[in-house]
Amino acid sequence: MMLPIERLNQIKKRILAEKNIKIADLSKDLQVSEMTIHRDLKPLIEEGLVVKTFGGISLANLPTTDDHEVCVYCSRAIHDTLSYRLILSDNTIEIACCAHCGLLRHKQLDDQVIQAICYDFLRQTTISAQRSFFVMDTSIDLGCCQPQVLSFEWEEHAQKFVKGFGGDVYAFNDAITTVFKKMNGTCKHDHT
Ligand SMILES: [Zn+2]
Ligand SMILES: [Zn+2]
């Protein structure tokens, strides 16, 4: 029998990966009643992560950031389509300005991170950071943090991008290690 908090984390992971889920499926897969699932979902609905649909839930459009919101890591202003969101085990969400800061913050928080969401650079859709591919050292400069890190849902897209614009492609774990190394093993950078 799963603890409610474990169930909640399972549900979060699934909604982030699948975007739509039926209550009946959650009830079956997690082996609890639909009423229990409804109770589990309440905080997720309240925090705005999911919305109710007929017989199920959908991943909400991530709330857009307001003008005052700044990167949790470097305090730059946040542009939604570059941002990297960390959903933590205590149900808080942290937002980093870009994958550079997101990956470094992810490394800092480590297993407190339940899920991380970034945007596909080409399609501007939300994607799971842990399953994304990251491009560094490309010739296109977006003017956020250096070394710049771009995220892609598909390795194929990342590879094509690199063919056109230069750079290297990394899977999630390698991307964290590499950006950390490029920062000389420190987590600080200046704001020039
Ligand atoms: Zn930042
Ligand atoms: Zn940045």
**What is the share of helical residues?**
25-40%
State the low-pLDDT regions, or none: none
Domain module count: 2
Largest sheet: 4 strands, antiparallel
Number of helices: 6
SSE string, helix = H, strand = E? HEHHEEEEHEEEEHEH
The rounded distance between the terminal residues' Cα atoms is 52 Å
- 3D shape: elongated
Radius of gyration: 18 Å
Number of strands: 10
Strand content: 15-25%
> What is the residue-mean pLDDT, rounded to a whole number?
89
Largest sheet strand order = 5-4-6-7
Global structural class:
alpha+beta
Distinct compounds present: zinc ion
Describe the structure.
Helices cover 36% and strands 22% of the residues. The protein is α+β, with helices and mostly antiparallel strands. It has 2 domains: 4-59, Arc Repressor Mutant, subunit A (Orthogonal Bundle); 80-182, no CATH class. The strands form 3 sheets. Strands 5-4-6-7 form a 4-stranded antiparallel sheet. Helix 4 packs across helix 6 (172-182). The protein binds zinc ion (2 copies).
